Amino acid sequence: MKNLRFIYIGLVLIIMSSCSSNDKESNHLAPLNVEIPEELTNNQEAVKFIEGSEMVINHWSDTLEELLQESEEYVGKEESDLSMMDKMKLAQIGIGFMSKMAEFGSEMSQLEITANTIENGLSDEELQAFEVARQAFKNRIEELGEKYENYGKRD
Question: What burial class does residue 40 get, using C-beta atoms within 10 Å of its C-beta: 0-12 exposed, 13-18 middle, 19+ buried?
């Protein structure tokens, strides 16, 4: 019976957090918008890759920021200071984080394979333009790193 109560509380917590997470004011980075270089506009594979990568990076960026914001209230607290509900919420956040990062890692691996395939068929001029677009994605990851560089550090 005790396990059933634990499961019930966990389900209620998940439902409450999914309903209330959209109420918070967002300070997420603005969506990344990668301009398709003129040299690549006629290459449908490259255009599709850039647009798909843009969607993946924006989704990942928002998801990561949401997870970090959800856990912010627990940063710096000792485990002994947390209630059972706090611990359950942190476990939920941790599982969500691991799940999303595994999903993102898989998507990024597939994008990297696709990028390598596309690069093999590009002229030197197209390759330079393609690299400029890919650099925009790397820049977004660096922006996130800089924004959250001090996340979790105590003053």
Answer: buried
Q: In sequence order, what DSSP letters do the residues of 93-112 get, joined into one string?
A: HHHHHHHHHHHHHHHHHHHH
CB count in 10 Å sphere of residue 29: 15
pTM surpassing 0.85?
no
Check if the beta carbon of residue 11 is closer than 8 Å to that of residue 48: no
Per-residue pLDDT tens digits for 97-133: 888 888 888 888 888 899 999 999 999 999 999 998 8
CA nearest 85: which of 73, 101, 100, 97?
A: 73
What element of type H or E holds 76?
A: none
Q: How far is CA 24 from CA 20, 28, 72, 100, in A?
A: 7, 11, 13, 20
